[in-house]
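Lay summary. Proteins are chains of building blocks that fold into shapes, and those shapes determine what they do. In this project we predict the shape from the chain. Here is one chain we studied, written as its sequence of building blocks.
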Amino acid sequence: MSIWWSLHLRREAASVPLARRFLLGAMETAGVDPEISFDLSVALSEACANAVEHGGHTVQGEQSVGRDPWDVWDELPGTACGQYRVTAYLDGERCRIEVTDSGPGFPARRMRRTSVHQHDPQQYPSLSAEDGRGLCLIEQLADHVHFGNRPGRGAVVSFDKVLKWRKGALLMVS
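And here is the predicted shape, written in a compact code that computers can read:
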């Protein structure tokens, strides 16, 4: 048995804990070890926070002037700057999570890395930096990470982690 779900969320700060709670609930119900669930939920929170902050362009603040905020759902795919998508797959011994947005994408220097690679300390933000630590945190919490761009349509952050299960876990029984 496997679990797959996808959420389309508005680019608002309130969507971050919603996505995190959804993931934690699914993993708890399935019987995933709480430490693994926590690591993935923190990584998801960081990816969602980046999508909220950088995942699209806006006109005069968070919304276009004179526009109904719910009209964002009527935008054509690839043009929706007011939303982002979270997709999670729990299948066997692995969980894979993807967060996609419609922002400008990542700089060319981001590439696929795994936790076994040695990281150059100079590529991390300084301790006094006010932002920029989220992607590094995702890299530390997940087993495999990919930062990519969808040409003309935004960025995608995907990461996965090998799961540990509680005894009698629902997914492992089926």
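What the prediction tells us: The chain has four helices and six strands.
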